[in-house]
Specification:
mainly alpha, Growth Hormone, Chain: A, single chain, 0% strand
């Protein structure tokens, strides 16, 4: 079992990693609840599978653009401060969604806008949080720390949607957004308690933001392992993750309502959680490319 289970030593030896992981788990539960609430709300209000699926298209551009910008900013600024500011922005978007919902029948374009902002700020959070982890542990502990961070994130993706479905069923969509706003304060507190995380000292002076993004994309294009991994992941996400259909299926086909919607979202992450928390064997494996395929 020691060769299979993920190593939790990084949590024991790094206070800042414990803060980061704990803040991520608490805020992730609320975020996943809200991710169920938004498409469910759009489908219930419109009855349109097209308009529900369009939410994913609206979120795509800010998701990609802000992830690239977030990486460039993380190379130039204190990552702890960047994470803190970004998390405050996520609290604001969740609070805005809650306020609009409690006010009654928010305009669909405004829901799209707030969904796009949430996706963009969420992308910055993911990039910044990942960039912090290598600063918190010794190089020989990095693989275990990343696997642990990813595995616990998957746990929130299992429990969070179920929580969202329960909240929506019991108290309405606004309750899920409220819980999201409150839970995001956990990451705000965690980031505030961490030590500063400046860029690596002694490295080259970063180029301009756009040039830096271009260099990063060029590096990926020249690295066959990264290109193949990204291509496989992109194809899987595009053609193998029917998340946009979950509210439609739960409401109109299975007649399971908000609770069924939450369970469908949670089901996707169950296998990923099991896989991520049993990655110890990868440290003894060769031919990782074949394993990815």
């Amino acid at each position: 079992m020691g060769r299979v289970a993920v190593d939790i030593t990084p949590l024991r030896v790094s206070r800042d990693l414990r803060l980061l992981v704990l803040g991520n788990v608490v805020s992730g539960l609320g975020t996943q609840a809200a991710l169920v609430a938004l498409p469910y709300q759009i489908y219930v209000e419109t009855g349109s599978a097209f308009l529900t699926g369009l939410l994913g298209a609206v979120e795509l551009l800010p998701l990609v653009a802000m992830a690239l910008l977030g990486g460039a900013f993380a190379d130039r600024h204190d990552r702890r401060r960047l994470l803190l500011l970004d998390q405050i922005a996520l609290v604001g978007t969740a609070a805005a969604l809650a306020a609009l919902t409690f006010a009654g029948s928010p305009p669909i374009p405004l829901l799209y806008l707030l969904g796009a902002l949430t996706a963009g700020f969420g992308a910055v959070q993911n990039v910044t949080r990942s960039a912090i982890v290598p600063n918190l542990v010794a190089p020989e502990r990095l693989r275990s720390a990343l696997a642990l961070n990813f595995g616990l994130m998957q746990v929130t993706m299992v429990a969070g949607p179920g929580l969202g479905g329960i909240l929506i069923g019991a108290w309405g969509v606004g309750a899920a957004y409220t819980v999201d706003a409150v839970s995001c304060l956990a990451m705000v507190a965690a980031a505030a308690a961490m030590r500063p995380q400046p860029p690596q000292a002694g490295g080259p002076t970063p180029a301009g933001v756009l040039r830096s993004i271009g260099e990063g994309l060029g590096f990926v294009r020249r690295n066959r392992a990264l290109t193949g991994s990204f291509a496989i992941d992109l194809m899987a996400m595009t053609f193998g993750m029917p998340r946009a259909l979950f509210p439609v299926l739960a409401v109109s086909v299975y007649h399971a309502g908000a609770a069924g919607t939450g369970l469908l979202y949670a089901a996707v992450s169950v296998g990923a959680t099991v896989a991520a928390l049993t990655t110890g064997w990868l440290s003894h494996a060769r031919r990782l490319g074949m394993i990815v395929i």
